[in-house]
TrEMBL record:
One of its GO terms (molecular function) is hydrolase activity. This is Phosphodiesterase of AP superfamily. It holds the Pfam family Phosphodiest. Gene3D superfamilies: Alkaline Phosphatase, subunit A. The lineage of its organism: Archaea, Methanobacteriati, Methanobacteriota, Stenosarchaea group, Halobacteria. Signal peptide: none annotated. It comes from the Archaea. PANTHER family: BIS(5'-ADENOSYL)-TRIPHOSPHATASE (PTHR10151:SF120), ECTONUCLEOTIDE PYROPHOSPHATASE/PHOSPHODIESTERASE (PTHR10151). InterPro entries: Alkaline_phosphatase_core_sf, Phosphodiest/P_Trfase.
Length: 544
C-alpha cells in the first residue's frame, strides 16, 4: 500500500523534560519558534507516567502503551538479581513509525531514546539516548554516511567543552534530521532533543547554559520547519523538571530497619550497582599514555579496592568513612580523587538473596519482593505474597517526611499502575513521592532520610503543543497524557490506532477508529555491552 504524497505531513519535536515552568523562566526572545507554535496552535501540560523517566516514558509516547505492555520500566532491566542497561530489544511493542510503514508511509527518526539497535522500516533511524556512541543505524552503514555529510555526531554531549558541548550536540541533531529528510523524503519525522534534560543533572541552576541550550533547540526547530515545511507540527515532552523541595528517602535503609533488607559489606552484594570503568583521567591515565601506565593504574586501584573491601568486612564501610569525612567537610574532595571501583568495594549493599523486599533501582520507583519461584533465591512464599505486600503498603503509606508531611502521594500495588503482559517485570509496590518533591535512593547510607543527591527532579507535567492543517486549535488539550500522542499522530495520517493502545486520539484531531494489528515480532533481548552508556547514566545519578 502506498499512501505517500509529496512533503512531510507530520513532524514531532521531542524536548526531554520541557515544561512551561522552565520555559516561563527563559527570556521572551529565547524560544521564538516554540512560542509561535504555541500561539498558532494549541498547547497544554502533558501528563507523564510513573515512573517519569526517559527510557520508560519515550516508549510510552511512541507506542501509545503503558510500561506493562511495552516492557520498559527503568534505565535497567533485571534478570533475577542481575541487571543490564535497557535497549530497544526490551521494548516489546511496535513504535508508530513501524505502524506507518504498514500503510506505505516513510519516516525519519533522529535521536529518539531507546531505539538502539533499530529494526527495519521504510525510512531512516539514528538512535538516541541509551545507545552507544557510533551506534548502529537504519539502514546499515548510515552512521558513517551521516558523519561524512555533517561532521562528527555524538550521542552524548562532550562535557569537556562546557556549554558548547551541549549546543554542538543539539545542532548536530537538527543537521542530521535535515540531511536525512532531504535524502529519504519522509512523510513522518520524529526529532528528539535530550540536552534539555541532561543539563539539569549535569549543571543544575546554570541558567546561562540552560538558556543557551533552549536557544539552540529553538533554532534547530526553525531550520527544520524552513527545510521541510510540514503540514502538522507536534511538540512533546516526556515529563517536566523542577527544583527539589523535599528530602531523600533511602528505601533500603528503611526496609533494613524493619528487617526486610539484609546487607553485606566488602563487595559481595548483588548486583554491583556500577560496573562501569572509571575514566582514564580519574584513574591516573591519559589517552596518549602507553598501555603500561593504564595497567599500573588498574593494578593500583585493584589493590586499594581489595584493602577497602577487607576493611568493610570488619565494619569500616565506605558509608562510615563518608559520614566521618562529611563532618569535616572533605567528603566531596575525597570522592573526586578516589576511583568509583574503590568506593564500591567498601560499600555496604543489599544482600538480595537473603532479603525479603528491597529497592533494586531508585528510578524503578518501587519495592520488589524476593518471591520464591520468581527470584533465584526467593524467601517470600507465594502463599504469603499478598499478605506481605499489603503489610508493606500499609507501613509505607504512613511514612512521613522529617517535617511531618506525607512522603508519598501514592503507595500502590503494581496492578493499579500497570496493565499488560510485561507487568510481571515491574516492582511489586509502586512509590509515588508527593509532588515528586522527594528523592528516592536505593543506596544504603545508614539513615533513612538525608539531603537529596540532586537539586532538580523530574515532575509529572511536561508539555504538548500542536498546530497545522489537521489540528483543530479551537479544541482543548486539557487532560492530555503521553499515551495519547501515538494515536493522535497516527490520526493525522488517517491511520487507525492499535486497539491495544492505552491512549486515545486527542480532540484536536479527528479520530479514525481502532483496529487489531498482528503482534509485533520483536528481536530477542540483547545486552548493552558498552561502558560509555553505563558511565553516562552513573554520572547523571540514574545508576547509584
Amino acid at each position: 500500500m502506498d499512501n505517500r504524497d509529496s512533503g512531510v505531513r507530520t513532524v514531532v519535536f521531542g524536548l526531554d523534560a520541557a515544561c512551561h515552568s522552565v520555559l516561563d523562566r527563559l527570556p521572551e526572545d529565547a524560544v521564538p519558534t516554540l512560542r509561535s507554535i504555541f500561539e498558532a496552535g494549541v498547547d497544554a501540560p502533558l501528563r507523564s507516567q510513573v515512573p517519569p523517566w526517559t527510557p520508560s516514558a519515550w516508549p510510552s509516547i511512541y507506542t501509545g502503551m503503558n510500561p506493562g505492555k511495552h516492557g520498559i520500566f527503568d534505565f535497567l532491566s533485571f534478570d533475577g538479581y542481575e541487571w543490564d542497561v535497557v535497549n530497544a530489544t526490551h521494548c516489546r511493542e511496535r513504535p508508530i513509525w513501524e505502524l506507518l510503514d504498514r500503510y506505505g508511509f516513510r519516516s525519519v527518526v533522529v535521536n529518539v531514546p531507546v531505539t538502539h539497535p533499530p529494526t527495519a522500516f521504510d525510512g531512516a533511524l539514528v538512535p538516541g539516548y541509551m545507545a552507544p556512541e557510533s551506534p548502529t543505524c537504519h539502514p546499515a552503514g548510515l552512521f558513517d554516511e551521516l558523519e561524512d555529510a555533517i561532521g562528527s555526531y555524538r550521542i552524548y554531549p562532550d562535557e569537556s567543552e562546557g556549554e558548547h558541548g551541549y549546543t554542538a550536540a543539539v545542532s548536530s541533531r537538527g543537521a542530521a534530521f535535515r540531511y536525512l529528510a532531504d535524502r529519504f523524503d519522509p512523510d513522518f519525522g520524529f526529532l528528539q532533543f535530550q540536552a534539555t534534560d541532561t543539563v539539569f543533572h549535569d549543571r543544575p541552576d546554570d541558567w546561562e547554559t540552560i538558556e543557551a541550550i533552549y536557544r539552540a533547540v529553538d533554532t534547530e526547530i526553525q531550520l527544520v520547519l524552513d527545510a521541510c515545511d510540514p503540514d502538522n507540527v507536534f511538540v512533546v515532552s516526556d515529563h517536566g523538571m523542577g527544583p527539589l523541595a523535599g528530602v531523600e528517602f533511602r528505601a533500603n535503609d528503611f526496609l533494613a530497619g524493619r528487617g526486610d533488607v539484609r546487607t553485606v559489606a566488602g563487595g559481595d552484594g548483588m548486583p554491583t550497582w556500577s560496573t562501569v570503568r572509571d575514566s582514564e583521567l580519574k584513574a591516573g591515565g591519559d589517552a596518549a599514555d602507553p598501555p603500561r601506565r593504564e595497567q599500573v593504574a588498574a593494578l593500583r586501584d585493584s589493590a586499594l579496592a581489595a584493602a577497602v573491601s577487607t576493611a568493610a568486612r570488619l565494619g569500616l564501610t565506605s558509608q562510615r568513612i563518608g559520614r566521618a569525612l562529611e563532618r569535616v567537610g572533605l567528603a566531596e574532595t575525597v570522592a573526586r580523587a578516589v576511583p568509583t571501583s574503590v568506593i564500591r568495594s567498601g560499600t555496604e549493599r543489599v544482600d538480595f538473596p537473603n532479603s525479603a523486599a528491597y529497592m533494586r533501582s531508585r528510578t524503578e520507583c518501587g519495592i520488589r519482593l524476593n518471591l520464591v519461584g520468581r527470584e533465584p533465591d526467593g524467601v517470600v512464599p507465594p502463599a504469603e505474597y499478598e499478605t506481605v505486600r499489603a503489610e508493606l503498603i500499609a507501613v509505607l503509606r504512613e511514612v512521613e517526611a522529617p517535617d511531618g508531611s506525607s512522603l508519598f502521594e501514592g503507595v500502590l500495588p503494581r496492578e493499579a499502575v500497570f496493565e499488560g503482559p510485561q507487568t510481571e517485570r515491574a516492582v511489586d509496590i509502586v512509590l509515588v513521592p508527593a509532588g515528586f518533591e522527594h528523592f528516592l535512593s536505593a543506596e544504603i547510607r545508614g539513615s533513612v532520610f538525608g539531603r537529596p543527591t540532586e537539586s532538580w527532579n523530574h515532575k509529572l507535567d511536561g508539555l504538548v503543543a500542536a498546530r497545522g492543517e489537521a489540528i483543530d486549535a479551537s479544541q482543548s488539550l486539557e487532560g492530555a497524557t503521553l499515551l495519547d500522542i501515538a494515536p493522535t499522530v497516527l490520526a493525522t495520517f488517517d491511520v487507525p490506532a492499535d486497539r491495544r493502545m492505552d491512549g486515545t486520539v486527542l480532540r484536536i484531531v479527528e479520530g479514525v477508529g481502532r483496529q487489531d494489528y498482528p503482534d509485533p515480532q520483536r528481536a530477542t533481548r540483547t545486552t548493552t555491552d558498552d561502558a560509555t552508556v553505563e558511565q553516562r547514566l552513573t554520572d547523571l545519578g540514574y545508576i547509584e
